[in-house]
């Protein structure tokens, strides 16, 4: 992985990152295999769907998912290698993945500024001790269940919690499609943790083959710290509706995740990891 860092002031950095083609291709193959085991499609036994079918049906959507995840992971790795301490969510831009070429993208982020503090050695510091609440463990387990959910195609209207595979295209103020702002075979989880609830409500009830125009308010923070809101409009063409099924939170679930003999053993590991992370954080 190649990384170039540009300083945009005392607290802003832009990382230009290049990920080797082979790394992305490997991740993509693993994703195809994973989906071939978890998807439920008519005419195929669960876990026996050929990879070629997965590629033909969901190739573009899986590629987008892999690229997004690769960008997030490589950005974090690059930040650590460069000794940066981000204090904001990174903005990913200028992403490019052409045939035969590596994955290239830029990540801009605010970082912890360097401070010149004098006469600090005589200061007394009280290190807080954090208690790991059981709700933290349950929240982590809930996230693991979400990550290991299986999906099956259904012939009904979309409901909260379903995944829609659809084509999205942004509309201008007059309702005309903006050609270069279109996405094909995008996967969208209705009611996801980070989803826009206005958009969720407008997608509930969608049927395969239906075209809907949706509008919602997008909020983001500018570089000067000001919050900006603007209306966004999209035309959505639903192509497939898939129902998600969460795994049972039991001993078998824990065994599938790793070297755990029971759910309680998995919970213990989570508590220990959270406690260690909190202790390290309190030490600065």
From TrEMBL:
It comes from marine metagenome. Pfam families: Trigger_N (PF05697). The lineage of its organism: unclassified sequences, metagenomes, ecological metagenomes. GO terms for biological process: 'de novo' cotranslational protein folding; protein transport; protein unfolding. This is Trigger factor ribosome-binding bacterial domain-containing protein. Residues 1-142 form the Trigger factor ribosome-binding bacterial domain. One of its GO terms (molecular function) is ribosome binding.
């Amino acid at each position: 992985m190649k990384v170039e860092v540009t300083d945009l002031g005392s607290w802003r950095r832009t990382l230009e990152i290049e990920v080797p083609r082979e790394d992305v291709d490997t991740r993509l193959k693993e994703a195809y295999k994973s989906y071939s085991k978890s998807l439920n499609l008519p005419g195929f036994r669960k876990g026996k769907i050929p990879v070629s079918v997965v590629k033909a049906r969901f190739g573009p959507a899986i590629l987008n998912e892999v690229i997004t995840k690769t960008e997030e992971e490589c950005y974090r790795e690059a930040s650590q290698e460069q000794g940066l301490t981000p204090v904001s969510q990174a903005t990913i831009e200028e992403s490019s993945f052409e045939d035969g070429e590596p994955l290239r993208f830029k990540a801009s982020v605010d970082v912890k500024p360097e401070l010149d503090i004098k006469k600090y050695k005589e200061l007394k510091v009280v290190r807080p001790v954090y208690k790991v609440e059981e709700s933290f463990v349950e929240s982590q387990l809930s996230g693991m269940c979400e990550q290991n959910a299986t999906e099956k195609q259904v012939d009904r209207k979309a409901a909260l919690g379903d995944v829609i595979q659809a084509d999205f295209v942004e509309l201008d103020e007059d309702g005309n499609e903006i050609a270069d702002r279109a996405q094909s075979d995008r996967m969208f989880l209705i009611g996801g943790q980070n989803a826009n609830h206005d958009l969720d409500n407008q997608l509930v009830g969608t049927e395969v083959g239906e075209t809907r125009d949706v509008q919602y308010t997008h909020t983001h923070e500018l570089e000067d710290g000001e919050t900006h809101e603007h209306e966004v409009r999209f035309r959505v063409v639903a192509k497939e509706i898939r129902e998600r099924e969460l795994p049972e939170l039991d001993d078998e679930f824990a065994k599938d995740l790793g070297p755990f003999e029971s759910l309680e053993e998995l919970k213990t590991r989570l508590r220990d990891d959270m406690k260690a992370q909190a202790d390290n954080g309190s030490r600065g």
